[in-house]
From TrEMBL:
Protein name, UniProt field: Mannitol-1-phosphate 5-dehydrogenase
Gene that encodes the chain: mtlD
One CC-aspect GO term: cytosol
Sequence similarity: Belongs to the mannitol dehydrogenase family.
Keyword Repeat: no
Coiled coil: none
SUPFAM superfamilies (UniProt xref): 6-phosphogluconate dehydrogenase C-terminal domain-like (SSF48179), NAD(P)-binding Rossmann-fold domains (SSF51735)
Annotated EC: 1.1.1.17
Enzyme kind, highest EC tier: oxidoreductase
Keywords noted in UniProt: NAD, Oxidoreductase
NCBIfam families named in the record: PRK02318.1-2, PRK02318.2-5
UniProt GO MF annotations: mannitol-1-phosphate 5-dehydrogenase activity
Ranges of residues in domain Mannitol dehydrogenase N-terminal: 13-198
Amino acid sequence: MNTPFEIKERRPRAVHFGPGNIGRGFIGLRLSRSGYDVCFVSRNEKQVAMLKSRGGYPVYIAGGDPEMLEVDNISAVHARNTDAVARRIVEAALVTTAVGASNLKDIAATIARGIVLRMQHTDEPLHIIACENAVGASTKLKKWVFKHLPADLHDQAHRQIAFPDSAIDRIVPTKKHDDPLAVTVEPYYEWAIDRSAIIMEGSLPEIEGALYVDSLLPFIERKLFTVNTGHAAAAYFGYLAGHKTIQQTMADPALLRRVRLVMQETGKMLAKKHNLDETNHQKYIHKILERFANPQLIDEVVRVGRSPIRKLSPGDRLIKPLMLAYDMGMETTDLISAIAAAMLFDPKLDQEASRLQADLRQQGVQHVIRTYFEIPSTHPLHQKIAARYREYVQKYRLAKVDALPSSFAAGQVATVSGFSKNAEA
Ligand SMILES: NC(=O)c1ccc[n+]([C@@H]2O[C@H](COP(=O)([O-])OP(=O)(O)OC[C@H]3O[C@@H](n4cnc5c(N)ncnc54)[C@H](O)[C@@H]3O)[C@@H](O)[C@H]2O)c1
Ligand SMILES: O=P(O)(O)OC[C@@H](O)[C@@H](O)[C@H](O)[C@H](O)CO
């Protein structure tokens, strides 16, 4: 096969889309530590220039003993330069993403372009792993990518290109450093990868610290419906109570208790569905609550609660465990409270929050529950969510303006007081 690109006998190469918090603070770090050369695909020209000129960046570990790790062997290309990205994909053993699950479709055409070029030059396998907070993110990306591949290449692409699903866990807040490439992370991490989707043993160069598992679903559901459900509950309860950070929220005993109750509801469901050991799961919850409270991190509720429409979608961390728990005949009171709180989340600059608020005002709560959560009006949970939402609207509408989060500008306070006025009666 005609191979102008060097594929073998050098450090393995990876292409990573989205050098944001987790991209730099976890994926880039782990891959570079595992011996990969990592090329970041970024939408930010300044970031590309800095990554290219420095070839690395620092990661600060915010733990008992704070330390700094230097990430090296890094390069970068601009996302707009799709020719260059495609050439990098030809040379890579691994493509990873951390762009946000809703943005995967936007990178699919570029990845497809790289795959077409790659198949002209080599039959080496390529693994593509979407590191997003969603069940089956790589599988979803595969569907998007295949839409951009010519039909006559599908068979070969199915053989040569694998999309193992994965579950990724490390809290990486948004923190401003003097160095714009620097990132601060918690010490804990977990990266589980579906081994059954790997093309053949040895075809994916080792990722140090990754856990290769035969069945990913229990891992991703345990992570998403414990860490992320609990985190979302903390963000939404914290926001309504006027807290700015998750750490402040966790220091509030009443809210800590409510977050734990939500995690216990999902915990019972997860233990039954995936046959988990209940004692171990309680320890898992306890450890996560400690991680949320890490006093060395400042994680804003607006980051953790971001994109509430995504978080309230039927397959995500709130509605999915609610429906599963309900179907198993389990208690769902605290999950319903977290969902109602999410429906009042309206920080400045969160476009999904603004859209949700506009729909709640203009179309009403029942429309939102039907269309966004896909829970029909006839379902008993539909009425329960609507009732809790109305209760919260009353409670928080009457709250004093100065008790509201600092992100409430004057205009937004008017929006909040508009809740009950316009919400469906
Ligand atoms: N931060 C965390 O604690 C954490 C932990 C685990 C998983 N995740 C998941 O990782 C993903 C990224 O989260 P984050 O916190 O790093 O967000 P972030 O906003 O810090 O980073 C996202 C990056 O993706 C880039 N991006 C978006 N669309 C792109 C495109 N079309 N092409 C190239 N780049 C694009 C953005 O410019 C940004 O640099 C999300 O799915 C999130 O749920 C985050
Ligand atoms: O990234 P999101 O918006 O899906 O969720 C926000 C946080 O819960 C999330 O980023 C966590 O910090 C992370 O998933 C921890 O592993």
